[in-house]
Amino acid sequence: MLTLIKREIQDHKIYFVMAFVLSIIFSVSIIAQIYKGENEELMFLLPFSEIVLAVITIIGICGLGASQMHTDKNRKISAFLLTLPVTRSRIFAARVLTGILALLLLLTPPAVTINIVLAGLGQQEATYKYFTVEIFSSLFLMSLGIYCTGLLCSLYKSRLSATPTLLGLILSIFLLSLIVIKGFGIEASIIMFFYTASCLTFSWLKFNSAAFI
């Protein structure tokens, strides 16, 4: 399993680099947001930059799931791996775990940053529980849902190779709008949990029945 995960990371290292860079940018943005004071330039630039970063992040997360399956199709990776003592379930699990590792790399530094900053402001206890339990869980489940959307859409064939990815991006934007409407909380987390579970289930069924050889 570790070998399969390592292979997935190597094949998609650009997404891990992107996740690391975005996590640093988000961390800096959080610090700037808290300490911006009455700086008019920051008050104008921060919301705009955060929207741009959110769009790039959505594209990147959805793209990772789609890229894993497209790379599989183009390079016949699963066909090769299945000639070895490796099962489809392990191949699929390795890909999903790789996606989760990328999401943790993206979300953990900003989470740590905001708690350190808030601790310095004397607001650690109240906000730590709220952020980790509600906001972080909602963000993680939303990100995982977007990733699984890309994973699922890329498994379906289309005459235009960009169509499944485009469909994944449209669904991802819909998921993001759901969080904006519902807010960060238990209701949004429950919805995202069932959506993600459904995407993973259908992705596994499609992957398990695909003809690689």
Structure description:
The protein has 213 residues and is an all-alpha fold. The protein has one domain (2-209). The protein is 85% helix and 0% strand. It contains 8 helices and no strands. The chain has helices spanning 2-11, 13-35, 40-75, 77-81, 88-120, 124-153, 162-182, 186-209. Helix 2 (13-35) packs antiparallel against helix 3 and helix 5 runs antiparallel to helix 6. The longest helix is centred in the N-terminal third of the chain and has 36 residues, at 40-75. The model has no long low-confidence stretch (mean pLDDT 78).
Based on the model shown, name its key terms:
0% strand, mainly alpha, single chain, 213 residues
Condensed summary:
The protein has 213 residues and is mostly helical. Helix content is 85%, strand content 0%.
